[in-house]
Amino acid sequence: MIGAVLAGGRGKRFGGDKLLFEISGKPLILYTIERLEKADSIDEVVVVASPENADKLKPLGYRVVVDELLVGPIGGVYTALSLGDAFVVAGDMPLLVPEFIDFIVERFKTAKKPACVPRWGNGYLEPLHAAYSSEFREFLEENIKAGQYAINQAIRESDACYIEIESLPEKWRESFFNVNTRKDLGRIGKYRGP
Ligand SMILES: Nc1nc2c(ncn2[C@@H]2O[C@H](COP(=O)(O)OP(=O)(O)OP(=O)(O)O)[C@@H](O)[C@H]2O)c(=O)[nH]1
Ligand SMILES: [Mg+2]
């Protein structure tokens, strides 16, 4: 399974170049990529970047595909699925839990649904920590063409399978942590394992 890392955002809340911001000398996106690579179910990591970010991210040495749509995460998922089925994460998720990713991919493979998405008890979805089939791409295309850019709505209108977060080990929830502001950086060191 491809591991797709969305990197087309502008980091407005962070104040620019969020994904290349270095923490202990390493860019934020590399923390995310290295955790994703640790998942046994992931064969190859691909970075889905905006045209603007692509040149800056290529030196990291991972395959980069360009998202020409730039309509938000839905366009990133759409672009990722041109390569086949994919587990999609945001580039700003440095605390990904590899065994949780393997768990979702396993469910995805047995469920044979267009997508497998973690869901909280209140119905909130985690679409940027989810597995998608390449067949889901056409469905996303219809949504995008109709100017409907909310990926959560697209998922809800599909026959997706859901993974109930509250039934899983509590420590896996750290996997959803994402860096949006500079203040969030303080949480990384605190949560990083040995
Ligand atoms: N490929 C692609 N990725 C996107 C797009 N919009 C956001 N992303 C990525 O999706 C992830 C989650 O987005 P946010 O947390 O909102 O990050 P952001 O857009 O950089 O930050 P803000 O500007 O503060 O909202 C980040 O990894 C972004 O790089 C897009 O249009 N295309
Ligand atoms: Mg974020």
From TrEMBL:
<keyword id="KW-0547">Nucleotide-binding</keyword>
<feature type="binding site">
    <location>
        <begin position="6"/>
        <end position="8"/>
    </location>
    <ligand>
        <name>GTP</name>
    </ligand>
</feature>
<feature type="domain" description="MobA-like NTP transferase">
    <location>
        <begin position="3"/>
        <end position="150"/>
    </location>
</feature>
<protein>
    <recommendedName>
        <fullName>Probable molybdenum cofactor guanylyltransferase</fullName>
        <ecNumber>2.7.7.77</ecNumber>
    </recommendedName>
</protein>
<keyword id="KW-0808">Transferase</keyword>
<feature type="binding site">
    <location>
        <position position="67"/>
    </location>
    <ligand>
        <name>GTP</name>
    </ligand>
</feature>
<feature type="binding site">
    <location>
        <position position="18"/>
    </location>
    <ligand>
        <name>GTP</name>
    </ligand>
</feature>
<dbReference type="GO" id="GO:0046872">
    <property type="term" value="F:metal ion binding"/>
</dbReference>
<feature type="binding site">
    <location>
        <position position="92"/>
    </location>
    <ligand>
        <name>Mg(2+)</name>
    </ligand>
</feature>
<keyword id="KW-0548">Nucleotidyltransferase</keyword>
<dbReference type="GO" id="GO:0061603">
    <property type="term" value="F:molybdenum cofactor guanylyltransferase activity"/>
</dbReference>
<keyword id="KW-0342">GTP-binding</keyword>
<keyword id="KW-0963">Cytoplasm</keyword>
<keyword id="KW-0479">Metal-binding</keyword>
<dbReference type="InterPro" id="IPR025877">
    <property type="entry name" value="MobA-like_NTP_Trfase"/>
</dbReference>
<dbReference type="GO" id="GO:0006777">
    <property type="term" value="P:Mo-molybdopterin cofactor biosynthetic process"/>
</dbReference>
<keyword id="KW-0460">Magnesium</keyword>
<dbReference type="GO" id="GO:0005525">
    <property type="term" value="F:GTP binding"/>
</dbReference>
<feature type="binding site">
    <location>
        <position position="92"/>
    </location>
    <ligand>
        <name>GTP</name>
    </ligand>
</feature>
<dbReference type="InterPro" id="IPR029044">
    <property type="entry name" value="Nucleotide-diphossugar_trans"/>
</dbReference>
<dbReference type="InterPro" id="IPR013482">
    <property type="entry name" value="Molybde_CF_guanTrfase"/>
</dbReference>
<dbReference type="GO" id="GO:0005737">
    <property type="term" value="C:cytoplasm"/>
</dbReference>
<dbReference type="Pfam" id="PF12804">
    <property type="entry name" value="NTP_transf_3"/>
</dbReference>
<keyword id="KW-0501">Molybdenum cofactor biosynthesis</keyword>
<comment type="function">
    <text>Transfers a GMP moiety from GTP to Mo-molybdopterin (Mo-MPT) cofactor (Moco or molybdenum cofactor) to form Mo-molybdopterin guanine dinucleotide (Mo-MGD) cofactor.</text>
</comment>
<comment type="similarity">
    <text>Belongs to the MobA family.</text>
</comment>
